[in-house]
Write a structure and sequence with these properties.
Layout lengths: L1 H5 L5 H6 L1 E3 L5 E4 L20 E3 L20 E3 L20 E3 L22 E3 L20 E3 L10 H4 L6 E3 L8 H8 L18 H20 L10 H4 L16
Parallel strand pairs: 2-3, 3-4, 4-5, 5-6, 6-7, 7-8
Antiparallel strand pairs: 1-2
Protein name: LRC18 protein
GO cellular component, one term: cytoplasm
Keywords: Leucine-rich repeat, Repeat
């Protein structure tokens, strides 16, 4: 029992044997579901990896030494017991994917340095204890997807909702003032295909025809699939990650 409380000890040999090649050729250190309770210092010797997966463990803290992983593009810390993140995470300038879903993070424990991740495209903050979202996250101009579901949010700052490249925002199951406003938060983003930035009369004939043809194709596709749900689907954000179980309830902290 005492050994179980300490968690599994990760040696450098175990870590080296846990390196995989990702679909795009990067080196991924996969230490998920290993029963780890403390950040293994030995992996600092493997800091040249492109991806690091420490998800589904029992980690309560990530040390500032995470900054040694300067090549890191992909960091998955979901389903741990994290109560805080180090400000040093803001030094990971190559990071484009950060999943810290299903932890014990509060708004106060989110470091201000998160807004330094200028290349971040996907951020998952779902299933935490957040009662507000820092407006400073509006500095993440490359952000395309953000998960805010299953928190204690009553509003989402405009600086986040109006991020220039944001396409998917999942804010379901938050205590917004009423259902109408919750629907507005969850569906405030429109598909790029239906967003017109200029009037049709300002288009040349060839451009206008091309736009009309594309619109006709889209309408035809919709008419051919009447049985499909009109509710947007966000596969990367409904569950802690793409390989997680379909039933999100299984990931909810008891």
């Amino acid at each position: 029992k005492a050994k179980g409380q300490k968690g599994k000890k990760i040696t450098l040999k175990i870590a080296k044997n846990s390196i995989r090649i990702s679909f795009d050729g990067g080196r991924r250190l996969d230490l998920s579901k290993m029963g780890i309770t403390t950040f293994p210092k030995c992996i600092l010797k493997l800091a040249d990896v492109d991806e690091l997966d420490l998800s589904r463990n029992m980690l309560k803290k990530i040390p500032s030494s995470i900054q040694k992983f300067q090549k890191l593009r992909w960091l998955d810390l979901h389903s741990n017991q994290l109560e805080e993140l180090p400000g040093a995470i803001g030094t990971l300038q190559n990071l484009f994917y950060l999943n810290i879903c299903n932890n014990k993070l509060t708004t106060k424990s989110l470091p201000e340095e998160l807004n330094l991740l200028k290349n971040l495209c996907i951020l998952n903050l779902g299933l935490n204890c957040l009662d507000s979202i820092p407006t400073s996250l509006g500095a993440l101009k490359e952000l395309k997807e953000i998960g805010l579901f299953d928190n204690a949010l009553t509003t989402i700052p405009n600086s986040v909702k109006k991020l220039p490249k944001l396409k998917k925002l999942n804010a379901e199951r938050n205590p917004f003032p009423d259902s109408t406003k919750q629907e507005q938060h969850s569906n405030s983003l429109k598909c790029v295909e239906t967003l017109y930035l200029i009037q049709e009369k300002d288009l040349c004939s060839s451009c206008l025809k091309m736009c009309q043809d594309e619109r006709d194709k889209l309408n035809k596709l919709k008419s051919m699939t009447p049985g499909l749900s009109k509710k947007p689907s966000f596969p990367l954000l409904l569950t802690p990650n793409s390989s997680a179980k379909d039933n999100q309830e299984e990931w909810r902290l008891k």
